[in-house]
Specification:
Layout: E1 5-11, E2 14-20, E3 23-25, H1 31-41, H2 43-60, H3 68-82, H4 84-97, H5 101-108, H6 110-117, E4 126-130, E5 140-148, E6 155-161, E7 167-173, E8 180-183, E9 187-193, H7 208-218, H8 222-229, E10 238-246, E11 249-257, E12 263-265, E13 272-275, H9 290-293, H10 296-308, H11 317-324, E14 343-352, E15 357-362
Parallel strand pairs: 1-15, 3-6
Antiparallel strand pairs: 1-2, 4-5, 4-13, 5-14, 6-7, 7-8, 8-9, 9-10, 10-11, 11-12, 14-15
Helix pairs in contact: 1-4, 2-5, 3-4, 3-5, 4-5, 7-8, 10-11
InterPro entries: C45_proenzyme-like (IPR047794), Peptidase_C45 (IPR047801), Peptidase_C45_hydrolase (IPR005079)
Domain Peptidase C45 hydrolase: 140-363
Protein name: Peptidase C45
Length: 371
């Protein structure tokens, strides 16, 4: 499968379409061999990911260098217990890239390590699912991926075939096993960061990125994915919005992973499910410190809900992108290099549930990028 990335760059009054290919399809199915092949093919990119996060962790720790070997060991232990095939894949990837396996475990556990180290909580991502009224038509699933500017070129779409014919396709960072994605059963997953009072309190648990990838690899419906995630022993929070399309119709739910969780939220009566960076499950809301200090997450969600309210019956991705491109609420977020806020929209991602494809556009939904 060939995935195409489209990067729109402004030139005077005209917009030009610059097509860039940044995708990879595995050719082997054994977990260790698959990781080894990926590691060899992308050794320089993976090393850069490790270098970026090593510096990010140091900065987060106030200038001291955390013991990444120990933190990586803790992450790997959790991965081995809950997702042994992915532990094998990470081990192979490290060997292929000629890096310590603890380095790769640490970048897979970057959310958990950032939570453990504490400090400023970053604002990331807005996700939309629209189920629509026609059960025979696939739902629309689109999100922005907001993250640090240093990772602007640090991601790809990875297609992973399995011997039994299943295929997982995931947008992820080099060295990280998964994030946003879809599989050949018509199950998709959107991903946003959340924050809970207990994040990091129990050290390094199961990486949320590993949880996302295992769901895409093993589950064929929203229901099976939701039940799988109930067993995920996480120590950091994220929302995993699950959506599926198949002969039985359409379904969606957001799993709000958190220590002691998860929480859950279902679509509204019109089939709309919008998630930004705050908890929606009323049982968990009192433990969410984020909206008090970062009300932008509330503004973004409100902007999307109001903008899409008239488009829920027959949704289309172009309309979602158009609403996301409105800058007033910060869904489409980009600042010039050197700004204090260096978390920007690195990609706009659409899931094609019918065909099992990920469509990723560099930069925000407005077409701009600032790197």
């Amino acid at each position: 499968m060939r995935i195409t990335f489209r990067s729109q760059m402004e030139r005077s009054t005209n917009e030009m379409l610059n097509t860039v290919t940044r995708a990879y399809t595995s050719t082997v199915s054994d977990p260790f061999d698959r990781g080894h092949e990926f590691g060899q093919a992308h050794s320089a990119d993976i090393a850069r990911t490790v270098a970026v996060y090593t510096e990010v962790f140091r900065h987060k720790a106030g200038g001291r260098q955390p013991d990444l070997t120990e933190l990586g060991k803790l992450g790997m232990k959790a991965i081995e217990a809950w997702a042994p095939d992915l532990a094998e894949e990470i081990t192979g990837m490290a060997e292929g890239a000629r890096l310590p396996v603890t380095d790769l475990a640490a970048v897979n556990a970057r959310t958990e390590i950032l939570s453990y180290l504490g400090g400023v909580r970053e604002s990331e991502c807005s996700a939309v699912v629209l189920l629509g009224d026609d059960e025979d038509a696939p739902p629309v699933a689109v999100q922005t991926w907001d993250w640090m500017r240093q990772m602007a070129a640090g991601w790809l779409v990875w297609t992973i075939p399995f011997p039994d014919g299943r295929v997982t396709t995931t947008l992820t960072e080099y060295g990280v096993v998964g994030k946003i994605g879809v599989n050949s059963s018509g199950l998709g997953l959107l991903f946003t960061r959340l924050h809970h009072d207990d994040d990091g309190a129990d050290g390094i648990g199961l990486p949320v990125h590993v949880a996302a990838r295992r769901v895409l690899d093993e589950c064929d419906s929203v229901t099976s994915a939701a039940y799988t995630l109930t067993t995920a022993p996480v120590t950091a929070s994220s929302s995993l919005s699950l959506v599926s399309h198949g002969p039985g119709g359409n379904a969606a739910v957001t799993c709000e992973l958190h220590p002691g969780g998860p929480g859950w939220t279902v679509p509204e009566d019109d089939g709309m499910l919008v998630h930004t960076n705050h908890f929606l499950d009323p049982r968990v809301v009192p433990s969410d410190p984020y909206p008090r200090l970062h009300p932008g997450t509330l503004i973004r969600r409100d902007q999307l809900r109001r903008g899409l309210r008239r488009h829920t019956a027959k949704p289309d991705a172009a309309t979602v992108r158009k609403v996301m491109a409105r800058h007033a609420g910060g869904v489409c977020h980009h600042t010039e290099p050197g700004h204090d806020d260096d978390h920007i929209t690195l990609a706009t991602v659409e899931l094609d549930l019918k065909n099992g494809e990920v469509r990723a556009t560099e930069g925000g939904p407005c077409g701009r990028r600032t790197w």
